[in-house]
Amino acid sequence: MNRALSRRGLTVVTALLTLAVGGPSAAAAGGPGSTPYLPRPTGSHAVGTTSLHLTDDSRPDPWASGVSARELMVSLWYPTASTSGRRAQYMTPTESELLLKDGGITGVPLDVLSTTRTNAFTNARPTGPVHGLPLVVLSPGFSKPRTTLTTLAEDLASHGYLVAAIDHTYESVATTFPNGRVATCTACEIPHDEAFWKRLIRGRAADVSFVLDELTGAHAKWDGARLIDPSRIAMAGHSVGGASTVTSMLADSRVRAGIDVDGTTDVPIPDSGLSRPFLFLGRQAQYSPGSGGGAVATWERDWQRLTGWKRWLVVAGAEHASFTDVGLLAEQVGIDIGADLPAARASQIIRGYTRAFLELHLRHRLQPLLDKPSKRYPQVMFCTPETHTCV
Q1: d(CA 373, CA 369)
Q2: What is the pLDDT of residues 35-75, one digit of tens each?
Q3: What CATH number should be reported for the domain holding residue 314?
């Protein structure tokens, strides 16, 4: 396995296949004919969702030769009072097929992910006070569609956040545009050396800044943009999306707080430091301080340069896919991702700690969950990198 794939935990779905090969087929191990579903959001608000097609004419696409503008698809989730519409489709049959084929997964229908039951209502009217909703930007792992963070997005929206998840075009196995065109992962075909990851992460930071311009600028492209409070913006990401959070915060002061979920930080924080709140959240097996070089060494380096509020948490029994919808849906169709921690429990953890972080830093509400280990979540350990300890 080459170094880049090892550090990224492979593509998430490929990891699922690798663990499933040689064991029971997905169909035999799971519940044939059952419909995958996302867990219900925990907040009091119903959730609406819509998608935006945005074009940045100021820069060429970094991956598609000869394309003079950067096109992005962005999904929004938000509170709504309208629950009479149809539930949103998780992904299209083509997107499901491309994602499963990318992992070489057999034993399940190729369109199975397109049948996944969601909790958000398509194009429902957003509700909330003008400039009253904090905005959270989500960035998925490399080769993964933005939809793989839907469970987290729906949950945050149910608690009164507006969430924007970005498909970084040509970095995902499938990005579908309104005219039906599907962009695939051109970047997957490029050698994944250090220069590649730095190029990708800096490109994602540019994507994030452009999306913020489009959502909070004077000529916002979405009718509900007036609900966004531009002074309360945070970002979270998984894998390389998490690593991109650091770079986005360095590049754009509008991002007031950030979370890196299980992502190696290839582009370091400069010696001048980063003073805004930051949370590292990762696998115990990969990101326990003092466990050696590689991925954890990048966190140890950057920890010293985080000069504001910060926490380093690790989750026992989790795997890379545990922190996204992929772990949940894989478990439902009978694919073993190799995690000792049940996927539903991992989902509770990622939603609970992400929400606590955002409540503290965007709404300034005290969150005891972030002060010390919790009996409610015994799998989550607080790490002190200076002493190489986690409790």
Answers
A1: 7
A2: 899 999 999 999 999 999 999 999 999 999 999 999 999 99
A3: 3.40.50.1820
- Contact status, residue 273 vs residue 305, Cβ threshold 8 Å: yes
Residues facing residue 54 across a β-bridge:
72
Tens of pLDDT, residue by residue over 312-362, are 999 999 999 999 999 999 999 888 899 999 999 999 999 999 999 999 999
CB-CB contact of 324 with 240 (8 Å): no
Answer yes or no: are the C-beta atoms of 331 and 37 closer than 8 Å. Answer: no
Determine the Cα–Cα distance for residues 195 and 91; give it in Å rounded to an integer.
Answer: 32
DSSP-H helix ranges across 111-267: 150-158, 194-216, 240-251
For 41, 48, 115, 326, the CA distances from 16, given in Å and listed in that order, are: 25, 30, 19, 9
| Diameter of the chain measured on Cα atoms | 56
Six-digit token pair at 365?
């509400």
Strands (E), the chain: 46-56, 70-80, 121-122, 133-139, 162-167, 175-176, 182-183, 228-238, 257-261, 278-283, 310-315, 380-384, 389-390
Instruction: Encode pLDDT of 254-297 as tens digits.
Output: 999 999 999 999 899 999 999 999 999 999 999 999 988 789 99
Count of structural domains within the chain: 1
Residue with the two structure tokens 């399940």: 108
Q: 223: domain range? A: 3-390
Question: Residue 201: helix, strand or coil by DSSP?
Answer: helix
